[in-house]
Predict the 3D structure of the following.
Amino acid sequence: DVLHQNLEELRRFEILGFDGQGWFITEYGRAVGYSYLDIQSAGHYIQGLKQNHNFRDLILNSPKVKEASKGEDIGWMIDAWIAGMSENAILKRSQRFGYSDFARLISTVSWQSFGLYRIMKALDMKEEAKRVLVYHLQVREGVPLGALPLLEIPGIGRKRALALYNAGIHNKTEICVNVKASVKVLGEKMVRYICS
């Protein structure tokens, strides 16, 4: 029957287990549920992790990201976004993407990377999970690793973080030490506020 087929599929993807007395949700299954991942994505991730795939490739080739990619090679787009390239510059090089398509892609990659992070944590893959979490933050915010601490400062978003990063400033302390360069990006009043 259909219910038994569905239960067996969930067991095959290691979302559910059966101990001879009844069905139970696995730690992996719990992580999948908390991440709102669909069964196809869950199966994709468990198989990919077993085969030791690179987490970036695993995410970018997941069913939901493939769907959001509209058939375009999106690896370069994500890399360019993380490196700080503007949305306009990325879209000029794209074949099929508009602004809403790109926003959907970033949202999907961010969601899927956070889902993979939770899965890896549940599978006790702590070091790998940390790297995936950093990747998730880079995709979500669109900045290189060195600019992430700047985004924790109130009033600094992607554009200002990238401008500071490109000026060699990576955190609050460096803003306050490199006042002249910081003022060029943030203005005198904001630098005074941050450094007070």
